[in-house]
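Q: Focus on the chain.
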Amino acid sequence: MQPEYEKIIVLIIVLTASFLTWKMVKDFYITKFHMVFAHLIAVITASFMLLSSMFLFMPKNYQRGVTPEVELSISSIATVIVMLGVLYLFFKYIPGNKK
């Protein structure tokens, strides 16, 4: 696969994960805090998701101009999916499961 396509795929994965994190966290905290505080908490959490998922796709031995900037791997994609699954479990499934 060409490096340009890998960059585009990684960008889509990372931005989607960050958006889903923002949405889950905001929906959870909007019932507990004011909308501004819930949005602020969600933006901070989504920023950490953006950074951590970008670090997953960074090559281990990166050298500027020599190696590609991102490395698309199944384990990195699986890790992002697991992180989103855990967030879904904590913010959507468990609070909605209480009766």
The chain has a mean pLDDT of 86. The chain has three helices and no strands.
